[in-house]
Amino acid sequence: MWCMRFEAKNGHFKRLVKGNFKNIPFSLAHQNQLYICHRLLSSTSYLSNQTVVQNGKAVDFSYHPLTDRLLELLNQPQQLPVWVFSASSLSMCGVVYKIGSVIKIPAIDPDSDFSLACIDLIIVVNDQNFFVYRRLSICDFNDHFYSYEVQQSPAIGIIQCSGLVQQCALCLRKVAGRLLVTDKVSTVFHVPGLSN
Known about the structure:
By secondary structure, the chain is an alpha+beta fold. Helices cover 23% and strands 41% of the residues. It has four helices and nine strands, in the order H-H-H-E-H-E-E-E-E-E-E-E-E. Residues 185-196 have low confidence and may be disordered.
């Protein structure tokens, strides 16, 4: 596992502990919580529900296989042509979604909490945002990279942005011929032998 990100985080704590030798764990935890709280509360994009759509163009969606599903989500009768605005990226609640980003969508399988999908198109219609996605099938969980091994599936779908399981964009990487999906924002490590 690559450790440079952990070393960078460690450097932050080394700066905090300089000259402070009383109750170091409490001091570090307290200072880190204050820092995170400051970042979250001072970030307008994290707290606001403002949506920012980046660069795009008007596209005729009339002959797309998901046109009927889009009209059903919009509660509109079938009328052609169906014009949509296709964006290159979309920012919601501080999370930037781009074409190729991975999202968590509601699961098909009742035993699973979520499914993974790769964004093919970001479309805006009547101030409503939608992701056209290609479903990813989860093969296995890779403990070494702490990521999901996935395979691309031919199944496509469309979901309104508010229908996501979790507001986060995951990262899709190809490592040694395998497609891996990792969390960009936070990673939780489970240490064997320690209980929660």
